[in-house]
Model the fold of this input.
Amino acid sequence: MKKKINYLILLLAFTFMFGCTDVEDTSGAEEPTKPQEETTVNTNKEQVEKTDPEEEKAKANSENEESATTAVEETTTEEKPAVINDELFSRYKLIEVDGGDLSGHREPKVVVDIGYGNREYWAFTNEHGQLVRVIADEIILQDDNSEPVLSSGRYYSDEAKVPGVESDVLDEGHVIADSLGGVSNAYNITPQDSTLNRHGDVAYMERAIRDAGGATNFEAIITYPDTETQIPSSYQYTYTLMGNEIVDTYDNVNPDEVNESLGLTDSKPSSESSDSNNSNTEGDVSSVDTNGNGQVTIKEAKEAGFSMPITSDHWLYQYMDDRDGDGMVGE
Done:
């Protein structure tokens, strides 16, 4: 009996020992797990903070917008549009032509800036390459002091050879004259009756604009008898001078011949001229020729009070350089 009790005590002792060992092993295995779990959670949290999809998307969109903006700015700065995006110019191709280009060729359906320097004078051609329209918001006069004007009073030594100007009775006529800031290429030159250009309505209009110090809302409409020729049949000029709108229309003919045919020519020459520029009376050239070299330049003549142009019937003409031989200097 006593022996059985001893066995029972030993069995309980072993049972107690094994139970304690399991508890100690289990708690010992769980303790290192907690730091690992915390490390894992912290690591994941840091990763989430670094790779948040919404933030990455916003950042990517911002970078794309900046790139697109930069690309647009670079394109706007570096690329010049081939055609002016304006309703007035939408049917024409914008091209650039040197102001002194002597070629008489014109491209069809184009618009060209024919203003010297920073002036904006726009010339248009039709589908046949004929110069049909010239416009300018403001006519800015030639400036002898700030611009490289030749002694002849022109920007260039010659004008474009538009077909028709080889005629003895036709000039290389500017639509907008040198003195009004126009260039000399084919988009500003038409074959124009010599008398009309030098002494007629064209010369009168140019002088009126010069005397007024410029003009605004300028437009020239040029008409042709057919689609083949480059010689106009008529011109219509519209411009505003000192607040007054002026419309001049005239045919491309010799006005003297027209007046004579209409019986409007005075056969008796006037004994006195109202314009000193048309006087044949010899003057004192030394008062004009300031450097005493025997030649009078446009600038010297202007400073002496003479208005341009100086024509061949003026006493001062013989002392001046009429390089194009058209009987007129400083037109």
